[in-house]
Every structure is written in structure tokens, then in C-alpha cells.
């Protein structure tokens, strides 16, 4: 036991990237909790630093190496400090990470983090990027019976078989695997008993889930029967996996929130084909029409890649046209980043200045749409699940049905309350509301 830390050992986790990494970090914290580690927010005070990484774009991976560089003085001062790298960079780079950064003690991929405690004890190899037969979730300690925050993530599916030409996920997360329905329902019931009122089902291709009869729509219907679980969301979906039954669930299941993240990436058929997305812009638009027919108030969001190899001004205009046709509530847009090992890696790149200009134009349009949707909420009554106190006294923050952050000036609500709120204002990335009496 070290002098600076007389009590339990302390674990600091930094999470990069997507929501699935947030979920994985929680599960790793639980696994290490069984080994006597408690979480700390203070990296300088930690006995172990775990970086749970993202490999999706070059910038995300480079962030890991600069953070590792910054850990050098800490490791020099305290050689017993353990440094671990988890997540998708760990999967993609494996032993290369320790070669480049010898201060790293262990490297664990997203499918083997149940072995982390044994690795830390020195009872398992320090580098583990297997895709094992066994399911990590079967080997992780059950979450402890503590109260939870009102909104939680639940991973139901991992991996991807779609092989979009730009994307590392099929290589870092592996083939599509669905968790069985019984396990998911048991975890959801446990979360509901511990105070969770909203769950977001996670998967790289979440709507491709096939871990039980009836597919993903049927899973959502079963979750809708769990007492106390008032809201269900899911992310991220592929257009080709939007089955009729799932669209109907948006009409029939009151707990399923009117919000859908359905990335299209581009509005040009030529680019979609080069990306290997396996659908046209027209097919996507017709799908959107069917989803809106089932749930007219649904808020739609997407991801876009700008400057994919071969993208012309005309392709870019097609993307702007698709965006205008859909009217998104919010969207993420990225400049194409060539990733080693993906089919598009060697293709000639679009001029960087041209890609930058296109990105700006696209983002300006998406921002206008976001604000139009937010302003359209003014005067409407939504429900808000309150998640935390605001920075200013007497202010509470929660999420609306449509996933907008809503600020309310009130001392009448607590974290976990679900209340009717009238929207009275729209700021840049949030709404302002007032409680409705009663
Ligand atoms: N370059 C830029 N953006 C990418 N994305 C995935 N791979 C790349 C890449 N190589 C984006 C896609 C995806 C989101 C999670 O990240 O838009 O939907
Ligand atoms: Fe990547 Fe495409 Fe799979 Fe999404 S569907 S994870 S973008 S390969």
C-alpha cells in the first residue's frame, strides 16, 4: 500500500468516443471494484489510470498518445502506478502501443475487459485483444445493488457486419453479436429497481439486434412492460435494419421516445455506393417518410461525412438537398479521415480546403435546422426527466422526450422526477422551460 493512499486502491478512468465506451467504462469500474478499487476523479491520486479509447477518426487516436505523453512525469514519480489502455485503439494497435509508449502496463480490447482484474493481478497476459468465444458479460461481476442515476445505457448488441468503406468498427469491435433477450430484460429490470427511469439501448448496429424472437421491435415491446421504466431510446441504427415492426413500435410503444438517430453519411447515390452503404438517398427518404407516418412528431438526427474520396461539388449539393428534404433536429458532421485497414484508405483524397469549405456549408445548414426545430418547441408541453441541478442556484436540468436539454428555474423538483414542462425559450444547444402546475 502506498503512502499517498492509505485506504482502497484508486482507479481513474478517462473515456473517449461513443456512448458504448461510457457503458464499458462503467462495467470495467465494477469489475475493478470487486478487486478493491474505487473510482477517483483525480488522476494524480490514482493507483491505476485506465484510458478507454476511440479509433473512429485519426484525431481520436492521436489524443490517446498525447494523453499518454502527459502521464510520463506521474509514472516517473510513482513507478508503481499502473497504466492501462482499453477500447478500440487497444484493439487496433495492440502491442504497438507499449512499443511506442513503454509506460503502458496493459492493453485490453473491448471484447476482453472481463479479464482486466486477472491482468492487473499479473495472472493473465498484459496484452489481450482476442475475440473470445465466451461472452464478457457472463464473466463480469453483477452490478452492485446501489441506486443509479435516472438515465442509463444498456449495451444489447456489439460489432458490425456492414463494412462501410471508411469505418474501422467492423475490425475493432468485430462481427455483429447480440446479447440474449433474457439477459437484457434482467439487466433492465435491475436498473429499474435501482431508480433508472430511462434506458438507452446501445449497439453499433442496435436495430440489427437479433438476440430473441421477433427482433429489435419485439425487444422494445418487452422492455415497455417493465414497471418503472418510463423511457426507452436506442442508438446507433443503420437504415437497412429499420424493420417494419420497429417502425410500428414507434407508433405503439408509449415509452419509446420520439427521437431517432439514423445516420445517412451522404445524400449522393454515387458516394453512398462508394461508401458501401447499400442504399440510395431515395430509399433513405422513403424510409424517413414511413417513420414519420408512424410517429409524426419524431425528431431525426444523423451523421455526415464530408470530403469522402471522389466527392464532387455535385455530390455535396445532393447531400445539402437531402438535408433540406429531411429537416434534422441535430446532426454530427465530420471531415473524412482515412483509417488504415479500411477499403477507402488508399483512395485519393479530396483537397483539404475544399472539404473544409463543404463542411462549413453543411454545418451552417444543420445548425439552422437545429435551431428551427428547437424554436418549434416553444409553446409546446414536453415531459422532462430531471438529471441534475444547474450551475445556478434554483435551476434544474433534464432531457425532453426529444432529447433536448431543458433548463427549468425551480426548487420544486428532484433528480429523477419526470414532469410536464412548457418550453418558453431556445438557446444555442438547449431549451428553457417552466413547470406546468399539477
Ligand atoms: N472519417 C470520418 N468520419 C467517420 N465516421 C466513421 N468513420 C469515419 C472516418 N473514417 C463517422 C461516421 C459514423 C460516426 C460514428 O463517425 O459518420 O456514423
Ligand atoms: Fe461503421 Fe458502417 Fe458499421 Fe456504422 S454501419 S459501425 S459506419 S461499418
From TrEMBL:
Signal peptide: none annotated. Residues 375-437 form the TRAM domain. Binds 2 [4Fe-4S] clusters. One cluster is coordinated with 3 cysteines and an exchangeable S-adenosyl-L-methionine. Its main location: cytoplasm. Keywords: 4Fe-4S, Cytoplasm, Iron, Iron-sulfur, Metal-binding, S-adenosyl-L-methionine, Transferase, tRNA processing. Residues 9-125 form the MTTase N-terminal domain. Its EC number is 2.8.4.3. [4Fe-4S] cluster 2 binds at residues 160, 164, 167. InterPro entries: Elp3/MiaA/NifB-like_rSAM, Methylthiotransferase, Methylthiotransferase_CS, Methylthiotransferase_N, Methylthiotransferase_N_sf, MiaB_methiolase, rSAM, rSAM_horseshoe. The keyword Iron applies. Its cofactor is [4Fe-4S] cluster. It is found in: Cytoplasm. One of its GO terms (molecular function) is 4 iron, 4 sulfur cluster binding. One of its GO terms (cellular component) is cytosol. [4Fe-4S] cluster 1 binds at residues 18, 54, 88. It catalyses: N(6)-dimethylallyladenosine(37) in tRNA + (sulfur carrier)-SH + AH2 + 2 S-adenosyl-L-methionine = 2-methylsulfanyl-N(6)-dimethylallyladenosine(37) in tRNA + (sulfur carrier)-H + 5'-deoxyadenosine + L-methionine + A + S-adenosyl-L-homocysteine + 2 H(+); 2-thio-N(6)-dimethylallyladenosine(37) in tRNA + S-adenosyl-L-methionine = 2-methylsulfanyl-N(6)-dimethylallyladenosine(37) in tRNA + S-adenosyl-L-homocysteine + H(+); N(6)-dimethylallyladenosine(37) in tRNA + (sulfur carrier)-SH + AH2 + S-adenosyl-L-methionine = 2-thio-N(6)-dimethylallyladenosine(37) in tRNA + (sulfur carrier)-H + 5'-deoxyadenosine + L-methionine + A + H(+). Residues 146-375 form the Radical SAM core domain. Monomer. This is tRNA-2-methylthio-N(6)-dimethylallyladenosine synthase. It comes from Paracoccus hibiscisoli. The gene is miaB.
